[in-house]
Design brief:
Elements lengths: L4 E12 L2 E7 L2 E3 L3 E5 L6 H8 L7 E6 L2 E2 L5 H6 L2 E3 L12 H13 L9 H17 L15 H13 L5 E5 L7 H14 L4 E6 L2 H5 L4 E6 L2 E6 L1 H5 L2 H8 L10
Parallel strand pairs: 4-9, 4-10, 7-8, 8-9
Antiparallel strand pairs: 1-2, 1-3, 1-5, 5-6, 10-11
Helix pairs in contact: 3-4, 3-5, 5-6
């Protein structure tokens, strides 16, 4: 691993009407790694994620991607740099088939997203690519299913496929396993592991056990600040991290 930093935040801070949701977060994500932001409810994970992905402007601090300051850049410009948040283009069209949704993702990559009047034939060229993407996320058998009718875990897999269609250098996944049963969680974790080859992934996750075998590096937030950072082994043994989780409202976490 080159150790090259692909994404960095410096002093990232967000205040809402006198409440500091995120305070002085300095995050460094190495190229080619899977990096998780975790923490109990209310820790500020989602706010950090929304700042990094340009859904919110920071009160203070800066964001750098591949060495460029992108703090005040429009989200679409940042996305064109290869920095893509998964649900930005999630299954936007529930009444289209799985295949059609992935094709639209591929069209976006070609810059022809508004050319719906183009001949069917030009879209057919995308079919082979779309099928290959669906196979990569184990959705080939669902190609002709209407997206709205799919099981929840498969919809999340489709979101990842439509994100991959944009060929991102860096994928940002927001709680990819939220609301899933055990079997779906295992499938999505395996999927993230598979698609992260040659890519950098930053994910927000609530569940420590999900990131245990998946993530190279973990940043633990609590009350809007970084509490700890390191490998899963390092952070899971950190008494402050354990106290933050036990002292929070994570009553559902069976391992406590």
């Amino acid at each position: 691993m080159s150790g090259e930093i692909i994404l960095e935040t410096r002093g990232l801070t967000k205040e809402f009407k006198g409440f500091t949701a995120v305070s002085d977060v300095n995050l460094k994500v190495q190229r080619g790694t899977i990096h998780a932001l975790i923490g109990p409810n209310g820790a500020g994970k989602t706010t950090v994620f929304n700042l990094v992905t340009k859904f919110l402007p920071p009160t203070a601090g800066s964001i750098h991607f591949k060495g460029e300051d992108i703090t005040h850049e429009a989200p679409a410009v940042t996305a064109r740099r290869g920095f893509v948040r998964s649900f930005q283009i999630s299954a936007t069209f529930p009444h289209l088939t799985v295949m059609e949704n992935v094709r639209i993702g591929l069209q976006r990559k070609l810059g022809t997203e508004f050319h719906f009047w183009k001949s069917e034939r030009s879209l057919d060229k995308l079919n082979d690519q779309a099928m290959a993407l669906l196979e990569s996320v184990d959705l080939a058998s669902f190609a002709d299913s209407v997206t709205a009718d799919m099981p929840y875990g498969r919809k999340r897999a489709l979101e990842i496929a439509t994100t991959l269609a944009l060929e991102p250098d860096m994928m940002l996944l927001d709680e990819p396993t939220q609301g899933m049963g055990h079997e779906d969680i295992e499938r999505v974790v395996a999927l993230i592991r598979k698609v992260s080859a040659n890519r950098t992934v930053l994910m927000v996750e609530h569940n420590l056990s999900v990131v245990a075998n998946l993530c190279d590096r973990i940043t633990v937030l609590t009350r809007g600040s970084v509490l700890a950072e390191g490998t899963y082994d390092e952070v899971s043994k950190n008494p402050q991290v354990l106290a933050a989780y036990v002292g929070s409202d994570n009553i559902n976490d069976a391992h406590h």
